[in-house]
Amino acid sequence: MEANIAIPSNREKTWNGGAVKPLGASYGKMMMWFFILSDALTFTGFLAAYGLTRFKFIDSWPIADEVFTHFPGLHGVHAPMYYVALMTFILIVSSVTMVLAVDAGHQMKQKKVAWYMFATIIFGIIFVGSQAWEWKNFINGSYGAVKTTDGKILQFAEPKLDEEGNKVLNDKGEVVFEQIALSDFIVDERTDGRVQHTRKNGLWFEAEETIATYSVAQVQNAYKANSNVQIRSERIDPTTKQKIILSREKGMAQLAKTKLVVEGANLKVNEYGNTIFGDFFFFITGFHGFHVFSGIIINIIIFFNVILGTYERRGHYEMVEKVGLYWHFVDLVWVFVFTFFYLV
Amino acid sequence: MAHAHESNTKRIWIVLVILSLLTTVEVILGIIKPDALHLTRFLGTSPLNWIFIILTLVKAYYIAWAFMHLEGEKKWLRRSIVWTAVFLICYLMTLLLIEGGYLHSTLAPLVKW
């Protein structure tokens, strides 16, 4: 019956949901929680779709360790995981400074709140910047590959050599291969004279896609000329969980079907493997990055309110607590994105 | 709010240490990928993947309980959020992952390698 009875409420607080506080939470805080719940389900939808697609292509999905291998300042060094681990750590630290700001708010320490908010904003900006760098590496690619008419990506590999020039063998006595870039075995410049159309020359300009560094024929000829180069297919050997290396002859047959030289990644094609892998990467990390970005903007607004003494006059720092919830949620989502994109 | 004026900084730092340690363990395992965990199978995937997922859930627990302060909220506010999310996420994940496996078993034989 209680729900039907009008409870006299303090009119001044009507905008905060009136005097009644269900579950002991203020209106704003509870609404933030239910917004977070719905947003969590949105991310779940994306990650579940990613999971479905990954199971669908379980025998050819790109291996994250081989895709994300860059670290700032280390050129050509194979450094899987370190960079994302650093990004994850940065975001966790920003979560800590945020929760310290909330804690200082409970004690009504305006200056402390301001400093912790400031630190949170800085860490947030570093994180988004790191993500931009990660995107840059992903878009530019590192090795280059070719795409066949039946939609498969072919990468190139050669036997790994130790310092004395001998082939490295694994414990089963098989030759270990390592991926090589197109420029590692193709020596000449592009030979067919094809250049990018630009607006400034030509009477009739039509926009076109970026022209690859090498032509298809050039890649095929270079493969024929280098007997140590072999094709690395998209397919994963279930016993070793490594990509299968094709024999010279098989590789030649596949390479004959080439239609496109692929360098880097975009929404239509990427050198790492399945197109949809790149699409999910851009979409999910992009959607998360957009959350971080809007979190930074909201944090900045609240930061100025703290400096101006708005919450000091209001008598409480609940607003900091509410943006804090949002910020932690962004961190929470990253923990899952990190696991499902980079680890699993 | 009963907890309004006491400081929780000690707990916050402890949670930071826990989260950093868990992430470090994940990264080390992700780089080494021990064959015994990576190439074996357990409940539909490798034990290594299960370790990653469990450690992730532990991290999520600490973020939600300590940082988002669910531990200090009323029991039913906490339940209305956590139970709803956990139920719907499990439901959606189960359906879509089973469907993904089915798609693979149906379509993979048609792909010529």
Give the gist of this structure.
The complex is a heterodimer of chains A (344) and B (113). With 344 residues, chain A is an alpha+beta fold.
Structural class of chain A: alpha+beta
- Tally the beta strands of chain B: 0
Q: Flag low-confidence runs of chain A.
A: none
Can you count the helices of chain B? 4
CATH first level of the largest domain in chain A: Mainly Alpha
What would the principal axes of the Cα set say about the shape of chain B? flat
H/E topology pattern of chain A:
HHHHEEEHHEEHEHHH
Q: Roughly what fraction of the amino acids of chain A lie in strands?
A: 5-15%
Domain module count of chain A: 2
Task: Note down, in words, how this protein is organized.
The complex is a heterodimer of chains A (344) and B (113). The model of chain A has no long low-confidence stretch (mean pLDDT 89). In chain A, helix 3 packs antiparallel against helix 10. Chain A starts with 26 loop residues before the first helix and ends with a helix. Chain A contains 10 helices and 6 strands, in the order H-H-H-H-E-E-E-H-H-E-E-H-E-H-H-H. In chain A, a hairpin with a 4-residue loop joins strand 4 and strand 5. Chain B is mainly alpha-helical and 113 residues long. Chain B folds into 2 domains: 72 residues; 40 residues. Classes of the chains: A alpha+beta (344), B mainly alpha (113). Chains A and B meet through helix 1, helix 3 and helix 10 of A and helix 1, helix 3 and helix 4 of B.
